[in-house]
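Appendix C reproduces, verbatim, an entry submitted by the partner laboratory led by Prof. M.T., so that reviewers can inspect both the input and the predicted structure.
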Amino acid sequence: MADQGRVAQAHQDEELLTLLYGQFQRMLFSQVLCLTNYDRQWTEDVVQETLIRAWQNSAHLVREPGMLRGWLCTVARRIVIDGWRSRQARPQEVELLRPDIAESPDDTEQTLSVMVITDVVRQLSDEHRSAIYETYVMGRTVKEAAIVLGVPEGTVKSRLYKAMHTIRRALQDRS
């Protein structure tokens, strides 16, 4: 007796699924498509979930097409509403078209180097600072810097060498 009941239920479930897919799938898809703002993938998911819920509740459904249609539309609308609510509850997902724009450059190393260099340059003598200023900041050649500073070219070169050596050593010590 129990086996006959299961066979009859399985047969009824099969009939229900055939009815649901044959008569209601297209109608349900077009209605849900409007509710999801024409998001086809979401619509397909909602229709599938609605039909799964109908199959799960097949023992309690009235098999009349008008009643089934109303039940399916109500369930689908509730699934969409739940989807909208969950989308509003979490941050909006965005697709990155260029992954390189998501990465924020880390300027910490450069900022730290500038701070160290600034500190070291302040500690240099006026002569060394003047040689760096005239060549690196003002963009003058060693010959031009020598004329401006009123010293021989060799003196400018020597001051630049010692100043740069001090700066490099300070940067290495920081590492």
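The chain has two domains: 1-90, 106-174. Additional entries are available on request from the coordinating office.
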